[in-house]
Amino acid sequence: MRAVIQRVTRASVTVEDKVVGAIDRPGLVALIGVTHDDTSAHADTIARKIAELRILRDERSLLDDGAPVLVVSQFTLYGDARKGRRPSWSHAAPGDVAEPLVKDVVKGLRKRGVEVATGSFGADMAVELVNDGPVTILLEV
């Protein structure tokens, strides 16, 4: 499982001209990619890392500040562009495998007391964010 974490001042996800998820104060955006052999344990580990990652101002975490996170599924994190000009998506898990695991990440964050907004799995989403810093971290488990 991979996650690209960005510290933001605000962020939102729009699907078909409707905002489906948003955070309107400083927090994080977590783009989540799932591969074939990921499990619920991986989802819980990534959720813990996101909740405890000390990348907010003054080296604080979501848990320290009560800050929100916007979670967006992103199969393209497993795109492989080492050969040719067209990425291969063969390392990305299919939707029926990935969707429950992304939901497990959301559950893992919420059980830790983190406020979570989400995108819409499998939808054509417009993600808007204001990267703060900028700070962008790649997590892998």
Question: Which features does this protein show?
Answer:
24% helix, six-stranded mixed β-sheet, 141 residues, 3 helices, alpha/beta
Task: Describe this structure as you would to a colleague.
- The chain is of the alpha/beta class.
- It is built from 3 helices and 6 strands.
- It has helices at 40-52, 62-65, 95-111; strands spanning 2-15, 18-23, 27-33, 69-73, 116-118, 126-140.
- Helix 3 (95-111) links the parallel strand 4 (69-73) and strand 5.
- Helix 1 (40-52) crosses helix 3 (95-111).
- The protein is globular and about 40 Å long.
- The mean pLDDT is 97.
Q: Are there runs of 5+ residues with pLDDT below 50, and where?
A: none
Rg from Cα: 14 Å
Give the biggest beta sheet.
Answer: 6 strands, mixed
- Total helical elements: 3
**Percent of residues in beta strands?**
35-45%
Count every beta strand, where a strand is a DSSP E run of 2 or more residues: 6
Q: Helix proportion of residues, in percent?
A: 10-25%
Topology summary:
Elements: E1 2-15, E2 18-23, E3 27-33, H1 40-52, H2 62-65, E4 69-73, H3 95-111, E5 116-118, E6 126-140
Parallel strand pairs: 3-4, 4-5
Antiparallel strand pairs: 1-2, 1-3, 1-6
Helix pairs in contact: 1-3
